[in-house]
Design brief:
Length: 295
């Protein structure tokens, strides 16, 4: 019985086309939400669930430098801050240092952006024969119990792949993967099918899949044989679909909390606003500012 998940894959090799032109030069996982980049929220969630190793799947052109720079120690900068009487700013770096010391980082390259499933497959060798978590940078959940920890508590009993699910209003479903399920317990579902971006009439339920998963070694076996989609991509959702068709158990868990999507410009702006308005230091002033400019 596996009760601990040590590794998480974070694919960041996508083109981020919905953020063009910004994403030509700037990685979307470093977009800020209030005063921290998206990736930092994901790593905090990973640490809370007991993850020890992060495997970033990145693209060759990125050379990883932005992420490496962000999490690397900066002794020179610390020295300058001390010499310029800006020691109060050292705390900002200290928190980040503490966070990155709790994790080890490995980088693997996806040579071509051939889909989220293809990106995950590139990390197979580093995962070996153990279950692991997968984070997509587009999705955050603001919840009492962090999203991955919620999935982990289900995994401890079911030992099978788990997808995070969230109920959405019907009119929003067409933008996501939507599941057909059999509900087997409170919040817990057995996945029967996944329909990608269904129309209102064809959506099999109001439960959408968000970018947080626990996968098992068997998922990698299926990823290897998943055919490319019409767009030439290996899509994780299609892998799960095939597994279910073959009678494999895949669970879906309706996670508690607010789903905050950062996948396109408007959603990122909303999510940024959400975290900024709730920020203990900046929130109160920002609320006043909003009232002022709305008059
Ligand atoms: P998305 O579906 O958000 O794709 O991928 P994207 O390329 O980032 O963005 P758009 O749709 O072009 O705007 C979900 C996650 O999978 C990664 C992305 O970086 C993101 O974290 N991904 C996607 C890869 O690593 N490689 C790929 O080939 C595709």
């Amino acid at each position: 019985m596996i009760t601990k998940i040590r590794k998480a894959i974070i694919p960041i090799a996508g083109l981020g086309t919905r953020f063009l032109p910004l994403s030509k030069a700037f990685p979307k996982e470093l977009l800020p939400l209030a005063d921290r980049p998206i990736i930092q929220y994901l790593l905090e969630e990973a640490i809370a669930a007991g993850i020890e190793e992060i495997i970033f799947v990145t693209r060759p052109a990125k050379k990883n430098h932005e992420i490496v720079d962000y999490f690397e120690n900066a002794p020179k900068l610390e020295k300058i801050l001390k010499s310029r009487d800006k020691e109060y700013l050292l705390d900002e770096l200290k928190n980040l240092k503490e966070l990155s010391e709790k994790l080890s980082f490995t980088y693997v390259i996806q040579k071509e952006p051939l889909g989220d499933g293809h990106a995950i497959l590139q990390a197979k060798k580093l995962i070996g024969e153990e279950p692991c978590a997968v984070f997509f940078c587009d999705d955050l959940v603001d919840s009492k119990i962090p999203c991955l920890s919620q999935l982990l508590s289900v995994f401890k009993t079911c030992q099978k792949p788990i997808l995070a699910l969230k109920k959405l209003p019907k009119k929003e479903l067409f933008q996501y993967g939507v599941v057909d399920t059999e509900k087997i317990a409170s919040r817990l579902h057995k996945i029967k099918n996944i329909i990608e971006k269904p129309s209102i009439d064809t959506a099999p339920s109001d439960l959408a899949v968000l970018g947080r998963y626990i996968i098992t070694p068997e998922v990698f076996d299926y990823l290897k044989k998943t055919p490319a989609s019409q767009k030439g991509e290996i899509v994780l959702a299609n892998t799960f679909k095939q597994m279910v068709k073959d009678g494999k158990m895949i669970y879906g868990y309706e996670v508690e909390g607010r789903w905050l999507d950062c996948g396109d410009k408007l959603r990122w702006l909303k999510t940024n606003l959400y975290f900024s308005l709730n920020h203990p230091k900046f929130g109160p002033e920002l609320k006043k500012f909003l009232e002022e400019i709305n008059q």
